Amino acid sequence: MFVCRKCLKRSDDPKALNKALKKALKHALESHDSPGNRAGEKPARVIATSCFGLCPKRAVVVTGGVHAARGEYVLVSAAGDVPTALAMLRDDPDRPR
């Protein structure tokens, strides 16, 4: 999962948001909902990247996997929004939008 470093730094509580992202990813792997949870594969990580160019005022830009390649992003404004954002990123990538 990729997170905009600048947005994360500007957020109200960057540590809590980063911790919530890591916890949600770990929970997704433990519940076997993640397609990348095969034996011998490394677990998903939260990677702080450079700016995506969206720069929302009170949110953090998050993307990952196929969605990153397509230029699709999810905005997260609080740690409580993380599970919903991850669910949106885990949706079927072949589903038409």
Counted by DSSP, the helix tally is: 4
Element pattern in H and E: EHHEEHEH
Largest sheet, described in full? 4 strands, mixed
| E-strand count | 4
Mean pLDDT: 84
Major beta sheet, strand line-up? 2-1-3-4
Summary?
This protein has about 100 residues and is α+β, with helices and mostly antiparallel strands. The chain is built from four helices and four strands. The longest helix has 17 residues, at about 15-30.
Verbal overview:
There is one protein chain. With 97 residues, the chain is an alpha+beta fold. Helix content is 39%, strand content 13%. It has helices at 5-10, 14-30, 65-70, 82-90; strands at residues 2-4, 47-49, 60-63, 74-76. Strands 2-1-3-4 form a four-stranded mixed beta sheet. The longest helix has 17 residues, at 14-30. It is globular and about 35 Å long.
